[in-house]
Amino acid sequence: MRDTFHMAITTNQNDRENGLPSRTSILVAAARAFGSRDPDEGVRNPDLLADRLIGPDELMLIRDHPFGKGLLQDYSDAIQNPFVAGFAGQMILRTRFIDEALVRAVKNGATQIVILGAGFDSRAYRFRELLIDCRVFEVDAEPTQEYKKRRVKDVLGDAPENLTYVRIDFAKDRIGDLLQAAGFREGAHSFFIWEGVCMYLPEDSVRKTLRMVASHSAPGSSIVLDYASSLAIEFGKLTPHGAGGIPADWSEPWIYGVPGANGSEFFRDLGFDPGIPISFHNPEAIKRYALRRDGASYASHVMEKLRAEAQARIQAGIAPPPLPEGFLDAQKAIAAAGGAYWLAELTLPDHSKPSQTHTSSVEL
Ligand SMILES: C[S@@+](CC[C@H](N)C(=O)[O-])C[C@H]1O[C@@H](n2cnc3c(N)ncnc32)[C@H](O)[C@@H]1O
Questions:
Q1: Model pTM above 0.90
Q2: Cα torsion at 162, 165, 171, 176 (round to 10°)?
């Protein structure tokens, strides 16, 4: 693997063609590994296995990104980097929100767990006990899945017996057929995780995947996902690295944003009860998922530093760099929508039960 890896880095060839994993799947796992090192339990990322899965070879693949170095540095130094702290903070929210939804779904009777675009997701291992009576499907592109299987075997040993791997290209394959061929039972109470994926897919694939979930699962089943709004994608076009901030030569740009301020109408039209989607900037969500013992949020120290630096520049009479046309309007539109990057649990209504007031994905 090392040889293939060095060839890809030096020739900058397409990762998938070289049988290498998606670099964004390594990036987000590295960010979870980073957050899992925080000494404060209030903000620690619960994905303690990520730090074992992401080793030196994996970090080499993302060496042109701050996390490629961040994991090799002393934690208290690396967390001073605003990008590292901000991104790791988002992952803490995301991991905890999805973990909570998973536990709730299994307690409510879900027997099939489908992890779409699984990357280095460790839940089949971290929640082995909870999921003992469930079938777990990890669905992903072949190169990422094959790499992950090898890595997991090396560091964690054999996969749990209840885990089935399914290969897919969301942009080409019919996911319903692939899942059924792998043993997915139509109509069973199911829980889907679609974490960090739909922003990389064409709109048609996003719609088809959600339609499949809606039409092949029992009422009461749900899918938890994070997503960008279309406002985020538009705003990204005005920034140097685009929405998501992914290096351009990774060939994994964010291309899709869910329409509408927070996506509710879009999801409702596809047959889901979207609850109330939660913005990553929602102060209540930050309080619930990423608050330190001293009351500060995970990344507040770097945000304050950035604010102080901007203030100092103004006082010194240093003019800020000119903003691209439309930047402030795009920023205002995002503020009016309540955010640009969201988390939601979409539920398939159970019409046989008295109507429930499903007001929020989570009680905040
Ligand atoms: C940012 S990673 C997220 C991985 C994982 N869900 C997590 O949060 O750790 C994006 C994942 O989407 C998968 N993916 C992107 N486009 C895909 C496609 N067209 N078909 C199958 N998988 C795809 C990648 O292989 C990768 O595992």
A1: yes
A2: -40
